[in-house]
Please model this.
Amino acid sequence: MANDLRIAGVSVAPGQSVRHALELVELADGLRVTLPLLLVNGAHDGPRLYLGAGIHGDEVTSIAILANVLRQFPAAQLSGSLVCVLVQNPLALHSDHRIPIGHYLKSPLDQSPIDPWSVFPGTPDGPLAEVLAHRLFELITQCEYAIDMHTPTRGGRYVPITLLPPVALGAPARRAEELAILYDVGLATAGEFSLEELASLIAREAAALTGTDGAMVALAENGQGFVVRAVHNAPALGLRSSVGEDLRGIALESLRTRDVVAASDYRAHPDSNPALYGLIASAIAAPLVAHGEIVGTLTAYVSRPRVFSEEARRLVRLYAAQAAIAIANAALLAETRRLARDDDLTGVLNRRSLLERLEVQIADATRHGETFGVVMCDVDGLKAVNDTAGHLVGNEVLRTLARAMRQATRSEDVVARFGGDEFVVLLPRTGPLPAQAIVGRIAGRLREERYMWAGQANELPRASFGIAWFPIDGRDADTLISTADARMYEDKARARTTRLAVAADAD
Model:
């Protein structure tokens, strides 16, 4: 049977918990600064553990992590006792209180009190930060073990940091780490990560959560099945990076079962990859399911044999659920940005994106004294196609035209749909002769393309082109586009005159 827990002037009976406010100082305006304590005395003998949550800006989340940990361990089931300081820097919660400037590293407007850890062990009658450090130090030194819930870098993951000898702190510390990792992935659901960044984060944190040597994330690709998008710690295991390759391994079973799959003997699993025999001994995989749809898979692996417990499976299942939502959100964000940037019919840039790129190009060319070309292109006979074959066929003509223009231009060139049947091609660092050569290549490619209608291949309608050059023809977007447009209509008029002349000769 445990004895009473006596600390900070409070006595707590075995199997009980008590909340207490430890007074620090009273400020000149009457504000009483207190240190909130949660004292938990287990029903059985055991070590005394200090748990603290540091607050430096956004670290208030540590409090929620600690609260979740403590809910897992009722006092009646605890061996030992907990001295929990839920807010190690209470002044951080007084965001509207003006503290004397000597108590701050920054301006009082920042509301960032000096970190008590920087003045340990502190003094009982010094500045506020030293008084706070002194009281914390008193509590910590009355415990056998201690951890501080802290983030080492701004925006980093909340992790327990050992303050006293780094011994095994047991289930509370491990649970805190697990909750921190799950919280980190939860943050990603509200972030603006690219799919590549998110896949790397998920793989890295999965290895930390499961205590495995490495991890791999594959994502669903339209029409391509599942493709590996991130591999964590492959070189340390002697593995080559498989990013960009089709999914292989035990994750295939997780796709079929839509559940966690564990292989304590990797070699014996029917979906195992023979190329990894001798490198991977055991693995665990899970599908990433969001809104009823499998958006990817997660695989974690170890180089030595391991039997994955039910607790490990539960954690992987929970982690996979959060990771899947994060991936679905990132994919939705990417698609939203694509729709805002690209023309939905043809897949090239839309008018707004083109004008933004053109302004950037003008600024760069002005700064470096360069020239570039703006090409306006119009499909002469699209109305006739729409009238005879219908708008669906006309849309296919536009898609074929856009695809051919992308294929005929350089990687640095920009193709955009300006509106209706008009396209613009931006040619960076391109003078008159090279620009004319590129336009000639585009026109030649368009003459080779065909579209299907009435069971036969038909030539694309003729396209007219006009080119303007910066800075010769103008130094702003409107002037350059207007000049290119006027020259395009000149090309259109010449083509019409030529057709009429040919028709007259034929008569």
About this structure: The longest strand covers residues 16-26.
